[in-house]
Amino acid sequence: MGTFSIWHLIILGAILVLLFGGRGKISGIMGDTAKGIRAFREGLKGEEETPPAADAKPLPKETGKDKARS
User: Fold this and answer.
1) Residues 40, 42, 47, 49: what is their CA dihedral angle, to the nearest 10 degrees?
2) Distances from the Cα of 43 to the Cα of 32, 33, 53, 65, angstroms
3) pLDDT tens, position by position, 6-62
4) 25 contacts: CB under 8 Å, gap ≥ 6
């Protein structure tokens, strides 16, 4: 095989198994990376964007007892 020794072939085989072996390991790693980046960006936005407030309800009318307390 010329200048390639058995160690070169073993390393090359290991790299090929890592890249193409299993059920889409590279795509899984890239998907996890994308999720991490997305979560980081959402974390940077923080509380600047507040969700719309729920429908405001009017306070109950004051009774005589409530006026006496204040």
Assistant:
1) 160
2) 16, 15, 21, 47
3) 999 999 988 887 777 766 677 777 888 899 999 998 888 876 555 566 677 777 777
4) 18, 19
Average pLDDT over residues 1-7: 80
pLDDT recorded at residue 36: 92
Cα 20 to Cα 23: distance, rounded to the nearest angstrom: 8
Rounded CA gap, 44 and 69, in Å? Answer: 45
Provide φ and ψ at 21, rounded to 5°: -80, 160
CB distance 18 to 25 below 8 Å: yes
Output the pTM of the full model.
0.35
Task: Name the DSSP letter for residue 53.
Answer: P
